[in-house]
Write a structure and sequence with these properties.
The protein is an alpha+beta fold. The protein has one domain. About 25% of the residues lie in helices and about 45% in strands. The longest helix has 28 residues.
Length: about 270
C-alpha cells in the first residue's frame, strides 16, 4: 500500500513537471519570434552605428569647427564613405554622408546610399538629428531617424527605426530605442553599443509588443552579447528572451514561455 502511494505521488510530480515544460509547438513558435526580434534589433543597431562614424560633439567647441574636423577624420578612417559640410542657417550645419555604390563595410555592417546629419546649436547645447531613410543596411532599406542631445546635464541618444523584418516576409517592426551609457565606454563609436526601448512586431497573427532592456552589442556580431527582450504576444502570452555571453558565443538564446521552464534555442540569421 505504501509503495503504491509513493508511485502515485511520483506520477503526480512527473505530471506537474511535464506541465511546466513548453511543448515543441510552443518552442518552435517562440524560436521564430526570437529570430524576428534579433533581425529587427540588428537594423536598430545598424542605425545607431551610423552615428558612430562621426564623433560626439565636444561641448565648448565652435559648431562649424567641430563639423569640419569630424568630416576630415571620417575621410581618413573610412575610405568608402565621403562627407560634405552644408551650411543650413546661422545655427545649423549639416553633413551629407555618401557611401560607395558597391557598399561600405563598417563594424560588420554593409552601408549603402546616403544620410544627412544636422547639427543645431553648439557650445552650451547641441542637438544632432540624422535622417537615414536614404540608406540600406545589409541590403535592407533603413527607415530611421537617430540623434542625440549633449551639453548641459547629460548626453542622450535615440533611434526611431521601422521597416520590414529582414528575411521574414509579411512581418514589420518599429522600435523606439534609447542608448544607454556604461562607465568606461564611449556612448557611440566604440566597440560596444547598448540600447533599450519599446517596440512592436506585426505579422499575419497580429502585433507583439516588445520591451528591450540592456541589449549590448559587440562590433561585428549579429546577436547581442547580453540583455533581455520581453514580448507580450498578440495571442496574450508572455515570452522572455535572455541573451547571455555564454550562449552568445554559440549563437543561442534562452527563452521562457509564460511561466514555464526556460529552454535554449539556436537563433538563425
Amino acid at each position: 500500500m505504501r509503495r503504491a502511494t509513493c508511485i502515485a505521488a511520483l506520477a503526480i510530480l512527473a505530471t506537474a513537471c511535464g506541465d511546466n515544460t513548453p511543448t515543441q509547438g510552443e518552442i518552435n513558435d517562440a524560436t521564430a519570434r526570437v529570430e524576428r526580434v534579433a533581425a529587427s534589433a540588428h537594423l536598430v543597431r545598424g542605425a545607431l552605428e551610423v552615428l558612430g562614424l562621426m564623433p560626439v560633439y565636444t561641448c565648448g567647441e565652435p559648431r562649424r569647427s567641430f563639423v569640419n574636423h569630424a568630416v576630415e577624420g571620417l575621410s581618413a578612417r573610412v575610405s568608402c564613405a565621403s562627407a560634405t559640410v552644408i551650411a543650413v542657417d546661422d545655427v545649423t550645419d549639416a553633413v551629407l554622408l555618401k557611401f560607395a555604390d558597391a557598399g561600405c563595410l563598417v563594424h560588420g555592417l554593409t552601408f549603402k546610399g546616403q544620410a544627412q546629419l544636422e547639427y543645431r546649436g553648439g557650445e552650451d547645447l547641441m542637438e544632432m538629428h540624422a535622417d537615414l531613410r536614404g540608406m540600406m543596411v545589409d541590403g535592407q532599406p533603413l527607415q530611421a531617424k537617430v540623434g542625440y542631445g549633449t551639453c548641459g546635464d547629460e548626453t542622450r541618444l535615440f533611434a526611431d527605426v521601422e521597416g520590414d523584418v529582414p528575411g521574414r516576409a509579411g512581418h514589420t517592426f518599429h522600435v523606439n530605442s534609447q542608448v544607454g551609457k556604461r562607465e568606461g565606454l564611449p556612448i557611440i563609436g566604440g566597440t560596444s553599443l547598448i540600447f533599450d526601448g519599446p517596440g512592436e512586431l506585426t505579422g499575419p497573427a497580429g502585433t507583439d509588443r516588445i520591451t528591450l532592456t540592456g541589449l549590448e552589442y559587440e562590433v561585428g556580431n549579429y546577436l547581442p552579447k547580453e540583455g533581455t527582450a520581453l514580448l507580450e504576444t498578440a495571442e496574450g502570452r508572455t515570452l522572455k528572451i535572455a541573451f547571455q555571453p555564454v550562449l552568445w558565443r554559440v549563437g543561442k538564446a534562452e527563452i521562457t514561455v509564460d511561466e514555464k521552464e526556460p529552454v535554449t534555442v539556436p537563433v538563425i540569421r
